[in-house]
Specification:
Elements (H helix, E strand, L loop, with lengths): L1 H8 L2 H15 L7 E2 L1 H8 L3 H13 L3 E4 L3 E4 L4 H22 L5 H20 L2 H18 L3 H10 L1 H12 L4 H16 L3 H13 L5 H7 L6
Antiparallel strand pairs: 1-3, 2-3
Helix pairs in contact: 2-4, 2-9, 3-4, 5-7, 5-9, 5-11, 6-7, 6-10, 7-9, 10-11
């Protein structure tokens, strides 16, 4: 079943890459956890070659450290990469919401609003992982609506460390209400064709992590470089 799914949705290497990356971002694989090609290949029912290729790609993104004499380990969160990822996202997504204003049609606005309703439900239920996925989906809808999905793909490859901090923040119950209220404001300003206000809220939204880093370092000292 696993092999069939990987053939349908993409290469086996990509399947392994996405699976491990998600586990690292979600905190299922904590920093300094040792993993092996054999272990992952057996667990995912794939051969070692795509696992090795996925490991190399994850190492390029700074998510894994590969040490020939010691093994492969989940890397600690690099705050310099967090800031670089945040900076890139802020400046590109400000441009995205500006473009969305006045161009999104009713169907696109409805999709955003449906996403917000689901975010409210997850907030009530305290579902961290689902809220993170809906947050990602909200931003993806903005990129898709502006026909910039390839730009989003590039951003996601550079945002792994930024996403790890965001996930830690959500797991610590930080700013859930703030995140949702900012998403609602972005939606409102896009609906009302207010590009300056939409851009301002997006900038605030993506700066939230700056106010959380020190507290998260204190709470999870072993997670950071």
């Amino acid at each position: 079943m696993t092999k069939l799914r990987t053939r349908v949705n993409g290469s086996t290497r990509d399947y392994v890459y996405e699976t491990i990356k998600k586990q690292i971002i979600n905190g299922e694989l904590e920093p300094e956890t040792k993993i092996s090609e054999n272990e992952i290949a057996t667990k995912l029912n794939v051969s070692r070659t795509p696992v090795r290729e996925a490991f190399l790609k994850l190492a390029e993104e700074g998510l894994l450290g590969i040490y020939p004499q010691s093994g492969t380990f989940v890397a600690k969160i690099d705050l310099e990469l967090v800031e670089e990822g945040r900076f890139i996202r802020e400046n590109i997504e400000k441009a995205i919401v500006r473009e969305a204003c006045g161009t999104f049609d009713q169907d696109q606005l409805i999709e955003l609003e449906k996403n917000l309703v689901m975010q409210e439900l997850c907030l009530e239920k305290g579902s961290t992982s689902s809220l993170f996925e809906l947050d990602e989906a909200f931003h993806q809808l903005l990129f898709e609506g502006c026909n910039k999905i390839y730009s989003l793909k590039i951003i996601r490859e550079m945002n792994s460390h930024f996403d790890r901090v965001r996930m830690l923040s959500l797991a610590s119950n930080h700013n859930w209400d703030v995140i949702l209220s900012q998403h609602k404001a972005i939606f409102q300003y896009i609906s009302e064709n207010e590009p300056d206000l939409a851009e301002e809220v997006m900038a605030q939204h993506l700066k939230l992590v700056n106010f959380e880093k020190e507290e998260l370092k204190s709470r999870y000292p072993g997670y950071f470089k």
